[in-house]
Amino acid sequence: HGNQLSGRWEPAGPRPPHAAMFADGTAPGADVESLWRSARSARCEAKSSQTEKISTVEAAAQSHTRRDAAVQTDQSKDAVPDFQQEVQVDYTSLLSFLQRVEDAVIKELNKNWKSHAFDGFEVNWTDQNETVLCLHTLSYPEAQDQNLQVTSVSWNATGSVVACSYGRLDGGDWSTEKSYVCTWNLDRRGLNPQHPDLVVDVPSSVMCLAFHPSQPSLIAGGLFSGELVVWDTSRAEDPVIWRTGMTDDTHTDPVYQVDWLPDAKHRNHSRLLSVSTDGKILVWRKERDGRLALAEGFAMVAQQIPRSTWLKKFSGGEAAVGVTSLSFSHFDPQVFVVGVEGGYSLKCSTAADTLAFHPTGSSVPLRAPAELAFSPHGGPVYSVSCSPFHRNLFLSCGTDGQVHLHSLLQTQPLISLQLSKKYLFCVRWSPVRPLVFAAASGEGNCNKCFCFIGDVYLFDFEKSSRKPAVSIKQAAGEHPVYCLEFNVKQTRLLAAGDATGTVKVWQLSSDFTEQGPREVNRLEQLASEITD
Question: Hey, what domains does the chain have and what are their CATH numbers?
Answer without folding.
Answer: 133-309+318-528 (2.130.10.10)
